[in-house]
Design a protein that fits this description.
Layout: H1 19-30, E1 46-51, E2 59-63, E3 69-71, H2 85-96, H3 101-107, H4 112-130, E4 138-145, E5 186-192, E6 197-202, H5 207-217, E7 223-227, E8 241-245, H6 260-274, H7 284-296, H8 302-312, H9 324-333
Parallel strand pairs: 4-7, 7-8
Antiparallel strand pairs: 1-2, 2-3, 4-5, 5-6
Bound molecules: zinc ion (ZN).
Length: about 350
């Protein structure tokens, strides 16, 4: 197996990025009005700033109300990270360009596991920005079945209570539509005519699986266009206006009724997900939400999206990364997203 560690002394783009400017940008995003606030008690009576001991570009402060010290990074996703801030910024830029974790580790340069933590914390911020998005008006809906099985081994203490069948190798596709049990969960793409989209993962396309997803993502009373798949017949009972086009009769548009936008999403999704070379089923939600973030902010440059992530880096910043499983569990407990498949 190829070594995961990289030569940390090699020259990289990092040498061209100004650390001082990065900290200035972080302070501007964090305190837009210029007033420094305590991350613990939100007081504005602050002593300082003083320059950091090891990183003179970073400022330290002390809150006169609660007496606690903090710095520019405290309370953000950058907290307790030994990587320079410019490495984080470069990582955000590369994540936005859809680079793989191994490639980002080479560019920073850092260990693969460090890059993995950084990449997932950035994706978690993207998911945080996209949480609670609701579509309205005319919404086109289409579904595909994404191959995503179980990977790795269950931790020892969880081996008896996985809550799902253990990993199976080989061909799992049986007759009929895909499902999580067949290692091909359904992806439901919902695209409104104003260009916003929501991408949800469903264990299968039964009514009880789809109902909560529509409830969460599409406002009641909206018009939904689909193809003639029978799994969408319940929509009028939920209070939506529903119409469909029948592809078997070679009907692809009938006036305003079509799902061309909904179907076009998949031509963008396929190359996006191919970068990651076989993903685990439990991570499919995170990838779907990341894709949703990129599509919904596609008119911004990577720098614009960096600004967006920076402004979100301050709110509910997650604790230092422990393990992917525990992190996903913490997301579920905070209600950021509710996976229909046990992870
Ligand atoms: Zn305080």
């Amino acid at each position: 197996m190829r070594a995961l560690c990289v030569d940390k002394d090699q020259k990289s783009f990092l040498s061209l990025i100004d650390e001082k400017r990065c900290y200035e940008m972080l302070r501007e995003a964090r305190w837009p009005d210029g007033q420094v606030r305590c991350p613990y008690c939100s007081a504005t009576d602050i002593a300082g700033p003083w320059r950091g001991v090891h990183t003179p570009e970073s400022y330290r402060y002390r809150c006169r109300a609660c007496g606690r010290g903090f710095n520019d990074r405290t309370g953000t996703v950058f907290e307790r990270s030994k990587m320079p801030l410019r490495a984080w910024f470069l990582a955000i830029y590369l994540v936005e360009l859809n680079r793989s974790t191994a490639e980002i580790a080479r560019e920073l340069p850092c260990d693969y596991h460090t890059a993995h933590r950084i990449v997932w914390l950035i994706r978690e911020r993207e998911m945080h920005i996209e949480a609670g998005r609701k579509l309205e008006g005319v919404v086109e809906v289409d579904e595909i079945y994404q191959t995503a099985g179980h990977k790795g081994r269950a931790p020892k203490e969880e081996s008896r209570c996985l809550g799902r069948p253990p990993r199976r190798r080989g061909k799992k596709q049986g007759p009929g539509r895909g499902s999580a049990a067949k290692d091909a969960p359904a992806l439901i793409g919902m695209v409104s005519r104003d260009g916003k989209m929501v991408l949800e993962v469903a264990p299968d396309v039964r009514r009880e699986s789809l109902e909560p997803l529509f409830e969460k993502a599409v406002k009641r009373g909206s018009t939904i266009y689909t193809d003639s798949a029978s799994c969408y017949r319940f929509l009028p009972q939920m209070g939506y206006v529903h119409d469909s086009v029948n592809h078997t009769r070679r009907e692809y548009a009938r006036g305003p009724v079509h799902v061309n936008r909904g179907e076009a999403v998949w031509s963008l999704w396929r190359p996006f997900i191919a970068t990651f070379r076989g993903i685990a089923q439990r991570n499919l939600h995170a990838y779907a939400r990341t894709f949703q973030f990129r599509r919904n902010h596609r008119h911004l440059t990577a720098f614009g999206r960096l600004n967006l992530i920076l402004s979100a880096a301050m709110k509910n910043a997650s604790k230092p990364f422990l393990s992917l499983r525990r992190w996903l569990n913490s997301l579920c407990s905070r209600g950021i997203y509710v996976p229909p498949i046990p992870i």
